[in-house]
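Take a record.
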Amino acid sequence: MTSDENTTNNENSENTKIQVQSNTEKIRNLSLFAITWPILVEVFLQMAMKFSDVFMLSFVSDEAVAAIGIANQIMIFTFVLFNFTAMGCGVVVSQFVGAGKQRDVSRTIANAILINLLFGLVMSAIVVGFRKPLLGIFDLAPELMGYAEIYMIIVGGALFMQAMVLTLSSVLQAQGYTKDVMFTVMGMNILNVFGNYVFIFGALGFPALGVTGVAISTAACRVLAMITLFILMYRRVEFKIAFKDYFLLKGEYVKKIMKIGIPGAGEHLSHNTSQLTITAFIATLGTAAIATRVYAHNYAMLMTMFSMAMSKGMQIYIGQLVGAGLMDLAYKRMFRGLKIAMGVALALGIVMAVFGEFFIGIFTNDPDIIAVGAVLLIIGALLEPGRTTNLVVISSLRAAGDAKFPVVMGILSMWGISVTLAYFLGIHLGYGLIGVWIAILADEWFRAIFMLFRWRSKKWQRMRLVDDEKSSGAAAAKKGKSTA
């Protein structure tokens, strides 16, 4: 090798070192607040969209609310299946961003989009084609079945668009563009409320379509969100995605996505399957019990809102720290985020518990529903610290590459404690919804304790997804040194 070539390699090596150090310093100085606050607004808007659906449908009837609540249980089940790709892609992208590997970021995104598009089309066909057998699981009354079937035809047919929304949102957030997703969801929310208003109440010359109108509004919003997010993704990605990349599944990237996505989806799948089973138990208690469950669940989601935002933010934050090799910093920052989330969740839970009758009364005048719903909100306040711990710690474990432990514990606890106790207390002993909520409380706290022990063990620090080199450039520098 000539002296000029040797000098060039040394210069390239030094430049690479500087780039790696610069990227690591950038990741070290990441602000959890800057990542999380747009996600908080996004989660709030998503909750508000669900809240507005339930609130406006309550003007139709409690039966309409109950029917859509059941149909949405099935829809949520499909979202979990879509999330296995979106979640895995988000974690892999965040670690690649932390390691400074932009080419790998783009190829991971292309593979994730192709997988979820195909999967979404299959699930849309299944939900629409098998809607009657799926709804038949819940043994719905005839008046509820009609509402639920219409909703599943319209919203179920658009499920593949939701698959794309989840994937595109995940990749944008993993790169730190949380504001883009926030503004998109804000637009969806405004359009959804407008659509619900005109179709439910027949305003501005639109026909009064009730449940059908809510379904049309939901599907239309997802179409617009998908288009918007796709445009934003192309504007934001640093290494442009070639059209051919959407048709080439590369084993290297698919394997990394599935390593996180499949166990992560397994945990969510276990949760949602167990919730479907518990909802089937509740359905045997009658329409009033189903409606109460829907109202209480909406407030439970409101209590969890900040924790959900923090868990999403922590997944991005911890993923980038781990990708940059900053393990000790990741360990400490998780506890800081958990303390903040816990404080907010407890404050919201206490407010809900104290003013429970007022909040449930917003939806209905039925005194029995109000009385039981208020008790559920009190139990929810006791449940919230456990649920918050699970949300934040599990997201952090998954972001670090430790995806298997949460799913194993989740399956054992959700089915061994939540479902079993829900039937025993709620149905066998006759405590109804109160017994069911106590069972869920026991499950959340049991898992929370084990998740904290797992994080403190630091076993996740050995499960990093990206190569040992901080970046592709680092590998090149190493090779250059060796050659020299």
About this structure: The CA atoms of residues 383 and 441 lie 5 Å apart. The first helix runs from residue 3 to 28.
